[in-house]
Design brief:
The chain is mostly helical. It has a domain of 123 residues. Helices cover 79% and strands 0% of the residues. It has nine helices and no strands. Helix 1 crosses helix 2. The longest helix is centred in the last third of the chain and has 28 residues. The protein starts with a helix and ends with a helix.
């Protein structure tokens, strides 16, 4: 019975917070994120991070990404791929320098500073999509550039994290060749499936 109360509280709170955020001239996703922080373990602790929440959040992200895929204009993405790639590279370099610099400033060893820098490079494609949808900019040239940059950014950061993990030997050993091979096969498969 707890899961019904959880679901009711989540749906009601996010709807109210999202609407309030829009009335204040902000994307609805901002209000939803803030209410999640308030109701979650960080502040009030009314919603626990359990299996129910985990699985529903995974389903929510999958549905959001699927919806974004349905609404994305591929021609617009193709037109803006150079700009998207440039934005992605800058979106990796600047946060990396900032994160690494802060790590060094606080006296962390170089490995930790490198990881902090790389972790700050990752973007949330699902949040990006939701904000662009809320602003009705998903299929605009700017929206396509931002979305393309977010995707490229995430792929590059995952590869860079794998490279760093392989060289520094932290945690479980990651096969760099296998990781890159899987990504190449995935994108070739998606492009072939899209073509047919």
């Amino acid at each position: 019975m707890d899961f019904i109360l959880y679901l009711l509280l989540i749906l009601l709170a996010t709807k109210i917070a999202g609407d309030l955020s829009v009335r204040l001239g902000q994307p609805s996703v901002l209000g939803k994120l803030i209410i999640g922080i308030i109701l979650g373990p960080a502040v009030l602790g009314w919603i626990e991070n359990n299996d129910f929440i985990h699985y529903f959040s995974e389903i929510g992200v999958l549905l959001l990404m699927f919806l974004a895929g349905l609404e994305t204009d591929l021609d617009q993405l193709k037109k803006n791929w150079k700009a998207a790639f440039a934005v992605a590279i800058i979106g990796i370099i600047l946060p990396f320098i900032g994160g690494f610099g802060i790590g060094e400033l606080f006296g962390l060893n170089t490995t930790y500073s490198l990881f902090i820098g790389l972790l700050l490079c990752a973007t949330s494609v699902s949040i990006t999509v939701q904000v662009l949808k809320d602003m009705n900019k998903l299929n605009s040239p700017e929206g396509s550039t931002i979305l393309g940059a977010a995707v490229v950014d995430d792929v590059l950061v995952v590869v860079l994290l794998a490279v760093m993990t392989s060289f520094l030997g932290t945690g479980d050993e990651v096969s760099l060749g296998l990781l890159i091979g899987k990504k190449v096969i995935f994108f070739i498969g998606v492009l072939l499936a899209g073509a047919f």
